[in-house]
């Protein structure tokens, strides 16, 4: 009956304040994957599953030198492709999906990476996370909120979602945040997850969001979580 009440104004305000702080904390945050075409971004994003962007960026120069576009990847020798992406983990699956996606891009989309979520989701190995990254960074479209492992963890710790399923987390975040900020939310949250709100032990004392975060308040105590903010340089409360 009162499902809509779950997204209370206070939660929304808190999300907007977190967003504003993240913009201050990471003003230059951008996609960490190296690419020069939408196709290369798509491939790099597929490779980034269960792998760091840093590792992917070590692999892609040789990969893109040998197979620079959809046609060359579609016709690549699968074993050669697997070898080139081996160090990113799950390489057999990733190579198979990259080749399958490129074959479909060549045959169904005139060798151009599609620019709608609906079409992107037809490609092997592409779920909403990859679709959101490609649409936002290759085509400037905020179709949704990218939910990777950092966004999932931090959104939960910040009390902005109680779900574990990325699709439901994305839906919660889309309702809390303005559409133009959907992708920059994810990018900045990923930066914060890597630098401060680490998976095993979040550095709540060094966190510029502690007064807005239920987990930080629990860890530090409510008062300290608020005082903590004034100790952190460059932060406006
Ligand atoms: S206060 Fe702690 S749990 Fe909350 S966002 Fe910051 S580091 Fe993460």
From TrEMBL:
Keyword flag DNA-binding: yes
PROSITE patterns: ENDONUCLEASE_III_1 (PS00764), ENDONUCLEASE_III_2 (PS01155)
Gene3D superfamilies: Helix-hairpin-Helix base-excision DNA repair enzymes (C-terminal), Hypothetical protein, domain 2
Catalytic activity: 2'-deoxyribonucleotide-(2'-deoxyribose 5'-phosphate)-2'-deoxyribonucleotide-DNA = a 3'-end 2'-deoxyribonucleotide-(2,3-dehydro-2,3-deoxyribose 5'-phosphate)-DNA + a 5'-end 5'-phospho-2'-deoxyribonucleoside-DNA + H(+)
Keyword line: 4Fe-4S, DNA damage, DNA repair, DNA-binding, Endonuclease, Glycosidase, Hydrolase, Iron, Iron-sulfur, Lyase, Metal-binding, Nuclease
SUPFAM superfamilies in the cross-refs: DNA-glycosylase (SSF48150)
GO MF, one example: 4 iron, 4 sulfur cluster binding
GO biological-process terms attached to the record: base-excision repair, AP site formation
EC number: 4.2.99.18
Pfam families in the record: EndIII_4Fe-2S, HHH, HhH-GPD
InterPro entries noted in UniProt: DNA_glycosylase, Endonuclease-III-like_CS2, Endonuclease3_FeS-loop_motif, Endouclease-III_FeS-bd_BS, HhH-GPD_domain, HhH_base_excis_C, HhH_motif, Nth
Cofactor note: Binds 1 [4Fe-4S] cluster.
Protein residues bound to [4Fe-4S] cluster: 197, 204, 207, 213
Domain HhH-GPD per the UniProt entry, residue ranges: 47-195
Cofactor list: [4Fe-4S] cluster
Summary of the function given for this chain in its UniProt record: DNA repair enzyme that has both DNA N-glycosylase activity and AP-lyase activity. The DNA N-glycosylase activity releases various damaged pyrimidines from DNA by cleaving the N-glycosidic bond, leaving an AP (apurinic/apyrimidinic) site. The AP-lyase activity cleaves the phosphodiester bond 3' to the AP site by a beta-elimination, leaving a 3'-terminal unsaturated sugar and a product with a terminal 5'-phosphate.
Family (UniProt): Belongs to the Nth/MutY family.
UniProt protein name: Endonuclease III
Biological source species: Umezakia ovalisporum FSS-62
């Amino acid at each position: 009956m009162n499902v809509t009440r779950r997204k209370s104004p206070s939660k929304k305000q808190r999300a907007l304040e977190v967003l504003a702080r993240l913009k201050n904390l990471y003003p230059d945050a951008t996609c960490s994957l190296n690419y020069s075409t939408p196709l290369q971004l798509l491939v790099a994003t597929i490779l980034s599953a269960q792998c760091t962007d840093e590792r992917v960026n070590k692999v892609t120069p040789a990969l893109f030198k040998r197979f620079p576009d959809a046609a060359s990847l579609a016709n690549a020798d699968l074993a050669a492709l697997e070898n080139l992406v081996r160090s990113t983990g799950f390489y057999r699956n990733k190579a198979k999906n990259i080749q399958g996606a490129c074959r479909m891009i060549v045959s169904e989309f005139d060798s151009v990476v599609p620019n709608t979520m609906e079409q992107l989701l037809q490609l092997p190995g592409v779920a909403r996370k990859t679709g959101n990254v490609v649409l936002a960074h290759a085509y400037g479209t905020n179709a949704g909120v990218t939910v990777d492992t950092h966004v999932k963890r931090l959104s939960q710790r910040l009390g902005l979602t109680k779900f574990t399923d990325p699709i439901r987390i994305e839906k919660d975040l889309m309702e809390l945040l303005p559409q133009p900020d959907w992708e920059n939310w994810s990018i900045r949250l990923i930066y914060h997850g890597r630098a401060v709100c680490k998976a095993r032990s979040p550095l709540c004392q060094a966190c510029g969001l502690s007064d807005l975060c239920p987990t930080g308040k629990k860890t530090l105590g409510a008062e300290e979580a608020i005082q903590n903010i004034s100790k952190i340089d460059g932060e406006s409360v």
